[in-house]
From TrEMBL:
Protein name: HTH psq-type domain-containing protein
Domain of life of the native organism: Eukaryota
Length: 122
């Protein structure tokens, strides 16, 4: 679900969602903190968006939890102690989407609970 969709659905201004979920400054710095290589970023894109089939229509086919788990496993090959904590996985995903032009997150409308501020459900 996009921030604009969450804003409309829950009646929360879009700017408030951005600021409260992602923080007001250094939103893209989280990409550096995750420390993915170029090849790892390509692997994440292929995993969540199937870019080899649809290179320009970057809509995810995986949940945020699945993508974050995939990224953690990639990074743990080089740093076994790497983990996203708290909202860091979501913050990383938001910045990654901005960098790579991913236009939507996976959302399952049959889920029993609504997503948390734009976070997709499994």
């Amino acid at each position: 679900m996009r921030f604009t969709q969450a804003s409309a659905r829950f009646g929360i201004p879009k700017g408030t969602l951005y600021d409260n979920i992602l923080g007001k400054s250094k939103r893209m710095m989280v990409l550096e903190e995750a420390g993915l290589t170029s090849d790892e970023e390509k692997a994440v894109l292929e995993y969540c968006c199937q870019t080899s089939i649809l290179p320009y229509n970057r809509r995810t086919k995986k949940s945020l939890a699945a993508v974050v788990s995939f990224v953690e496993k990639l990074r743990q090959e080089r740093d076994p102690d790497f983990r996203f904590t708290g909202l860091s996985g979501f913050r990383w995903w938001w910045a990654f989407c901005k960098k790579h032009g991913i236009v939507s997150l996976y959302f399952d409308p049959n889920s029993s609970s609504p997503p948390v501020d734009g976070e997709p459900s499994d």
